[in-house]
Structure formats: structure tokens, C-alpha cells
Amino acid sequence: MRFLVASAASIVAVVTACALTLTTRTAQAHHSDGVGASFTFLQAPFTQDLYATHLDFGEGVAFAPDGDPLVAFVTMRRIDADGDEPTAHGDELHPVTVLDATACVGLANHSDGTLYANELSGITSRDAETGAVLRGPFGAAGNCLGIAVDPQTGNVVYADALGTVSAVDAAFTTTNVFSAVAGSYDGMSFDPTGDYLFLANFAIGGVTVLARDGSLVQHVPYAAQCCADGLAFHPGAPPFVVSSNTDGTMTRLDFPDGDFTQPPTQMLFASGGFRGDLANVGADGCMYLSQGGTRFEDGAETEEGSLVRICPGFAPPPGSATPVATATPTPIVTPTAGATAAPAETKDDCKEGGWRRFGFRNQGACIASVRAGRHRP
């Protein structure tokens, strides 16, 4: 996402104005039959699904411990990956719940089981179930957008308000400048080794590649599409990077022999979509990307934002590759002597505090138990 503004104060004004237009609605999403129509062209053999609608025009994307996508554009929402809500458009959709939490835009999962958010006041640590602030803000002021976890150190790296790249450790004890290379940065992602950081750079309409010491490797201005926003890696031979662009396209960057120091071949990956924004990769190896409009399977369109899933084979970043391990549930209530509590049978049983009735330590542990089939009828 790119706010074309000159100062942090202007960003606050824009975000606040957008927040005032938000309404509390039930949203929906599409299942994995791979025949979505969000993009009129998608490079084979990849598949697409409309995953959620009734969202804002641009969202940050992360994941709850059970795999539910979490999105943020001031308001945070959670999309029920197991929900089922058919529509008249041919899409089977999942419901969305508005969370009692706000976050600017950029989100990242961490292997410590929490989320981190890029905020104007710095970085905050968030509960991965509810989005509630656990710690922070800490570190240099952020720009609300790009944020990633360093696979080698676990540090949280983010686009700061000065147009450079800052970093904090996960314990919020140290902060530093990761790179002084200036840009108008948006989405960012490390390559799977952590040796390179890729950043969508609005100033060049393409992608900037940094070494892990913060030095510039190369700028990759786009020759055709514009402008890079959300990023994802696809390992293989050769490995390539995909960007979701603000002109409704996606660009694929193939680096010779996987050498990120060499100029990549640029090719059209997808087109005919809506304004692209931030993206992330889930534990299922699919890229989840924000779109500034919705196109259903039958071709009907709305101006509401959507979340689209493109599969398969993308590389999940740290924290979203493996759902947070769920320990043996710890009862927090003591049943009456001799009584046996009925098990949780559905995810709905676990929501709105229902997990407490079944003796779980939180909603995520309850839902994980249901998904594992231990309490499913």
C-alpha cells in the first residue's frame, strides 16, 4: 500500500479518515476449487480463489494459529478458514469476524507465536488470536506498511517513517537501522535463507534488493507493470519472486540460477485484477493477497476489497510455516465433582469465550482440538 503523503501526520489523517468509513459487516470467502476469476489471466499451472470479500481496498495479511487469515486496515478482521457461506455467484465463501482490535496495516507472524505490526509509533507485539496489543510500541516510528521477520535472527525488520529500514529484536530490548538505503518502501520479504531482503519500492515502481548487512544489491524498476506492493517467494529451479501490483497485475521475477545479484527476467504473472496491496504466504504454501475490488466466479463485480489466494508452492515466511504448537489443554475452570463436560464439537463452540467452558487455555487451543478431529462428531 502506498499513501502518497509527505509526513507521518498526513498518514495519520488518511488512516483516520478511512477508519471513519468502516462499517461492521459479515464478510465471505471462496474455497479451494481454483477456478476464481479475480484475475482474468493467471500464469499456468497456478490456481486462484476468491478468499474473502467485503474488505477494505488494501489490507495487511497474517495468520492465526489455526490458519485463519487475519487482515488489517485500521480495523482488524479474522477470516474463518473452516467456515462455509455459499452465495448466488457460484463462490463458496467463508465468514469474516471484525476483531476488537486495530492495527495500521502491515502485519507479520513470528515464530514466538505472536504477530508484529508496523505502526506510526513503532512496532507492537500482538496476540495472534485476537490482535490485541501485548507489548509496545517499541523502536523507531514506522510507516504503517512493510514488515518482515529475519529468518536468521528472529528480529523484526520494517519500513520506517524516515524512508529507511529499521529493526528491533523480538524481546523489545534493542533497536537499530537495518539499512540506510532510502526508498518509498511498502511490502517486504526475506528470501527463505534470510540472506536477502526484497522490498517493494514505490520510488522506482519495482523492487529493491538488499543484502542482509543492509547494503544495496540492486534496484529492479519494472519495465511494464506498476507498481510492486505485496511480495512472495516461490522456491524451485529457478526460484522466483512474485509481486502484487497497484495496477491490477502481478509480476514474476526470475533470477538467473537463483542469483539475486543478477538482473532478473521480468514477466507478466497475472493481469485483469484490481489494485493490489500487501500479501503473505500461509502454511498451505499459497499466496494470500489483498485486492481493491471483488470479482466473483460468475463475473459479477463489486468495489469492495477482497482477499485472493494463489496456489501452490510459495514459501511461507517464519512464523506462518508451522501453526503454533498447541500444548495439552490446561483447564482454567474446575468441573463439579463427578461431572463430565461435553467436548467442543465445532469452532463456533470455541468462540465468544466458549473455550472456557471446555477447559482450554484459549480459543486457539480449543479450535485446534476441533480441527484435529479429537472432538468432532
What's the short story on this structure?
This protein is mostly beta strands. The protein has helices spanning 8-20, 347-350, 363-371; strands at 41-42, 47-55, 60-63, 69-79, 85-86, 92-93, 96-103, 107-109, 115-119, 122-126, 133-138, 142-149, 156-160, 165-168, 175-179, 185-190, 196-201, 206-211, 216-220, 228-234, 240-245, 250-254, 265-271, 276-281, 287-291, 294-295, 301-302, 305-311.
What report would you give on this structure?
This protein is mainly beta. 7% of the residues lie in helices and 40% in strands. It is built from three helices and 28 strands. It has helices spanning 8-20, 347-350, 363-371; strands spanning 41-42, 47-55, 60-63, 69-79, 85-86, 92-93, 96-103, 107-109, 115-119, 122-126, 133-138, 142-149, 156-160, 165-168, 175-179, 185-190, 196-201, 206-211, 216-220, 228-234, 240-245, 250-254, 265-271, 276-281, 287-291, 294-295, 301-302, 305-311. The strands form eight sheets. Strands 1-23-22-21-20 form a five-stranded antiparallel sheet, with no helix packed on it. Strand 13 and strand 14 (165-168) form a beta hairpin. The longest helix is centred in the N-terminal third of the chain and has 13 residues, at 8-20. The N and C termini lie far apart (43 Å). 49% of the residues are buried. The model is unreliable at 3-31 and 323-341 (pLDDT under 50).
